[in-house]
Structure formats: C-alpha cells, structure tokens
Amino acid sequence: MFNFGHDIYSVDNFFYEHLRLKELVLDYVQKSDFYSITKFTLISNGIPEESGYTLVKRDGSELSKLLIDLHLSINDLMNSVYQESFTCQWNNREYVCAIGCHPSGGFFPPHYDFGSSGKEYYKCSSVFYLNENYDGGSLYFPEHNVEIAAKENQLIMLPSHYLHASSEVKNGTKFYIGTFFYGQDQ
Question: C-alpha angle 102/172/163, rounded to 5°?
C-alpha cells in the first residue's frame, strides 16, 4: 500500500478475482444499453456523452456477487487504514457501487462524491481500475497536488469530500468501479 498523503491511498494487485470481474463488466457493458442509461446524467454534468457510468443492481448474478466480494475487501482495508484518522463511522452494509467507462475523449471533471441515503452521507470513496490498455485517464486531486496514473487491478481510496477528477482518456477505453460508503459524523 502506498500513502500519497492527505489520506489518499493506493493498493496494487488488490483483488484476487479481478480478471473474472473485468470479463463480467465488459460483458455487462456490451449486453446492456449502458450508454443511453447514463446519457442524461452525464451530459447534465458536463461529461462527454461517450462516457458511461451506471449503478449496479444487487440481483444475485455472478457480477453482483463479485462486486459484493470487492466491496467487503475494500471495506476491510478501509477499516484498518482509516480507523484512527477519520472522525466518522461508515456503515459497511450501506454503499453504492457503480461501473464507469471512459473511451477516448472521456473524462470526469473536478467533483466531490456526494450522496445521501436520507440519514447518512458518503464518507469514503474508492476507485478500482479494471484495465490499463488506454492512455491518459489519471486521477488527480487539485487541492492536494496529487496525480495518480491508473493501473489495472489497482485500488485508490479517498475521503469522499476531497475534490478529485479524472483526466481525459487519449486513446483506448478505461473501465473502473467506483464504490461509495455511507457514514454518520461522530
């Protein structure tokens, strides 16, 4: 694990089933109406319509089960890393998981990860990279002067209230999974 400072961490070779997860995600994107599902949300936020981002249903499928395994692995790591530095507690049962896709020209502008379940808000976020056959698409934190070049099977963990962005993908397509954990202030 590498600490970039400011509670931003990177873990290489993170998930034991990442090759199967990558295969299932690529199959999901090809078989679903992935891009039209996300088009309105993306364009209204200034993101090119070629990019895609969709929440994943917990439906008992193999993809859903692997995403739950991924979530539990991330949660365990976050508990050990952030237990002393965070002034909040997150609920490891309540989270949002989303598949993201940025083809050439795709990016994500600077943003904070905000979301609410009514009583709780996103406290911790993570990005898990599924592939690396693309150029560009690094994750950067403008307020902390940190930039991370994405690598396949790499996990990035961050506090949800940090401003961050993904630079433009120059060629190829970047696939990733974003996970957002709810929590309450203590």
Answer: 35
